[in-house]
What does this fold into?
Amino acid sequence: MTGSAAVSGAPPASLRLLLRGVVDYAGLFPPAGLAMADAVAEYARHRDEPGAWMLGRFVLPAARLEEFESVAAPRLPREIAAWWPLSALLGSDLEEDVRRIEQFNERRDTRPGAALVDTVELKAHTPREVGHAAEILQRQFDTYVEIPIVEDPAELVEAVAAARAKAKIRTGGTTADAFPAAQHVVRFIARCLAHTVPFKATAGLHHPLRAEYRLTYETNAPRGVMYGFLNVLLATAAMHAGASEREASAVLEERDPRAVQFREDSVHVRQHLLGLASLRAARESMTSFGSCSFAEPVADLSTLGIL
It folds into this structure.
């Protein structure tokens, strides 16, 4: 049976465990590239949809926090329990961006409308840069450090672990050459698991399963092979369950929807039967993925009969 075996139309427990809060909404960024007002409106709408249980943070550059504040004010919830969690991308001037975030959070304590930056994301290419960022941030926020993975990222992951931060991997982009090799993705995951470093992924994960898609939303856009977010999550779960890097690469590159079977208490992918413990461990490792669309992942899951 293809897809998921749900009871009374409800997603199975295995699917909810794997996907709850997993999509960080990044509509401001390519290929969507929405204006702030449009991205805020999209996020507000998605929070009221049946699939909202899969929605995570709103991602924006720290430099645009004031713009967000002015645009989002009428839409922000008044109840603290319904607050909007924000993830702010830091630029080259870390100190200035941290100041912006601190001022934003202080203002949100005194103004109507519940929103808070509790997560930051930044890039680092060397262990020294990771350490420098850690000194500035002083563990004020949940911190994700995007690192390069073409070369073995072992030292960088060790530095992220020493900083008590989390890692971030770029899994695609708007050009075919922006997509890393499967063995590099799996090696990154293996390094993170070895050092107990949680991570998030970003770019090129609009769809559940690996296939060839348009690289942008333009009508005549070039096409390329993208990873699926289920592929990355399930490859991580398989490695937690003892799969080798070679076996995990096969899961990462799986394209056949019939090869992925969701049941109430497990997922069957290729030769791997992944129980709830492996799925829970996968989500503790891969905390989320960034996508410039929330509607597209949800629609694709429905089309495949998974949701």
Notes: The chain has one domain: 3-301. Residues 3-301 form a domain with the TIM Barrel fold (CATH 3.20.20). The radius of gyration is 19 Å. DSSP finds eleven helices and 14 strands in the chain.
